[in-house]
Amino acid sequence: MSRPIIEVRGLSKRYRLGTIGATSLREEFNRWCDRLRRQASPADQREFWALRDVSFEVSPGEVVGIIGRNGAGKSTLLKILSRITEPTGGEALLRGRVASLLEIGTGFHPELTGRENIFLNGAILGMTRAEVRRKLDEIVAFAEIEKFIDTPVKRYSSGMHVRLGFAVAAHLEPEILIVDEVLSVGDYAFQRKCLGKMEEVSRGDGRTVLFVSHNLGSVTGLCGRAVWLAQGRVQSIGTADDVVAEYVRSQTDETRSDYDLRAWGGPERAANHLVITDLQVNNGAPLVHGGAFRARLGFRTHAPVESVAFALSFATVEGTLLATFDSDHDGRRHSYPAGYTGAAELALPTLPLGPGRYALTLGVRSGDAVWLDHLPACSVVDVQPGPRTHAGFLHAAGGGLRLVADWNETAAPGP
Amino acid sequence: MTPFSGEIAIRPTRGFRGLAARELWAYRDLVFLFVWRDFVARYKQTVLGPLWFVFQPLITTVIFTAVFSHIAELSTDGLPPTLFYLCGLLPWNYFAQTFNSTSGTLVANAGLFGKVYFPRLVVPIAAVISNLIAFAIQFVLFVVMYGLHRASHVDATYGMRWDALLLPLVLLQVAAFSLGVGLWLAALTAKFRDFAVLSTFLVQLWMYVTPIIYPLAKVPEQWRVWVAINPMAVPVEAFRYLLLGTGAINATLIAVSLAMTAAALVSGVLVFQRVEKTFVDVI
Lengths: 415, 283
Hints:
The complex is a heterodimer. Chain A has helices at 25-36, 42-45, 74-81, 114-124, 129-143, 158-170, 188-205, 216-222, 240-254; strands at 6-16, 47-58, 63-67, 89-95, 98-101, 176-179, 208-212, 225-230, 233-239, 258-260, 274-281, 287-288, 293-301, 305-316, 321-326, 334-336, 341-348, 356-366, 370-384. By secondary structure, chain A is an alpha/beta fold. Chain A has a six-stranded mixed sheet with strand order 5-6-7-3-8-9, with helices on both faces. In chain A, strands 12, 14, 15, 16, 18 and 19 form a six-stranded mixed sheet that branches. A four-stranded antiparallel sheet of chain A has the order 10-11-13-17, with no helix packed on it. β4 (89-95) of chain A pairs antiparallel with β1 (7-10) of chain B, so a sheet runs across the interface.
């Protein structure tokens, strides 16, 4: 047990910006000419280190979470450890059978039946046919698709699809399991089941798990230790609780509250009759589950507009729309002449969103269906746990709404 | 999941990497499943299913007979034109199909390759094998046509030779060569999309420098070595020699052809393995 099962030493990965996407021969030829003339080609200078000198060790049986913002290098790290791409420098040693789960149901073929896809997916993930055959009944039962096992996968609902994919993956018997954000899909009950299976996998058989997630609740719930990546470097390593707490603190510090939206999405919007120019979120205060929420949308009119209604929506970062607040829910709409600047303010006494990260979408309509301006996912906000957020709610993977209602409870002795 | 235990070292590789044959063998079940997937998935939605394998060479042969034999009056080496073309098309179709499916390997599977690791060579190798199914069906078609012809021309001088049993070896050469060129094109296409356009065009032109619509005997003797540099020329001629008994091949031509095939296969594997390790970054 002394030797680490995963050893990462000085791992770095460089991407050349501008060459993401296949090049054409002409571009390559130009670069080659530049190199001949011993000039640094402008294309060579646009590089970007997705990972820079990352080192850490994982002991057998440990469950380690990797956290960090989008673009911090989490996915790149997993891709390198899964051998999907090579590092630019440094090395990583993995001592054991590795299974990586960067996506659910990789390689599913829609024309093949559930049973056929279990074999195919199993083989893609590294199982032999004999292994799959031995575990087939267990996989089918875990996925709860007994009745549809001989139906082509293209007729499956998305939930069944995910369940089948996870069921295959859950029955791999690796010594090292690498999991990316795959639990953000699927229904809540199934997520619990997967989390349970993962816990069983790690605690029961002493398997090592490397787990990337945006869901900080599942990181603290599942992982003993955590690694926090920021801009490609290791920001902090330690017990999951400590690292997550540190991360949340830094997030609140750097969450932006003012957005200049004049140039958002390119110049075309400048021709709109009404343009949303800026957004201020919660007067700069952190967003808290169960706390108050305010937003202020600044706008400018370039032409006379009638029956104007503003809307603000929350969506998960994966893009699932959760809730919309329309300014005309009570039928009030306004008209403005050209050349006006103004602001629309939204106030919500209790924010019903569970802790997690959400995308804000802004929009302005004229009447029922004409969009004057529309800014999908133009800003991202983090909702922190509030005083009345109970522990179980943290597991709801960022998609949970807790609405306020009046409850009356009565009880009397007897049956 | 890697099907074998042991230490995996991940570090940047410099230069070319040798073939990890042991790892490839560990993934043999995946090769089999890909072959089976290709076959099942390709025909689940077509009405005629594998019958398409029969129509395609049949129609090509009819057109070739009309255009090249009757209108252009090109020699068919004293053989019935139908059998002559059909026989040449056997290895050629196999080559063209395999080349087509392997050259798109990296680009077509980018989504899969970006999510899970397994030796990338598994996919082109599966393509080489799954196209053998089409070859087998077309071979049966040829045998039927041959039988019909012999039955109606009892005094015919052409005929299958005993050494037709060597045919699998010739087929193996075609498979090796298709894989080699396919891997080259797969690597080039992943880097430069220009090659996706080029490869379709290449196969069309290639057919004309291969003795499909003319016998190798029509090429002046001192030039035949140059024709054999095209590794497809000798196998096509060998098919006719073994199945119909006429053909202009000799040991020198075979040696040249085999050497070229080996060069294509080895360099193809090396180039493919060099590109596969980082191609997901540029796709």
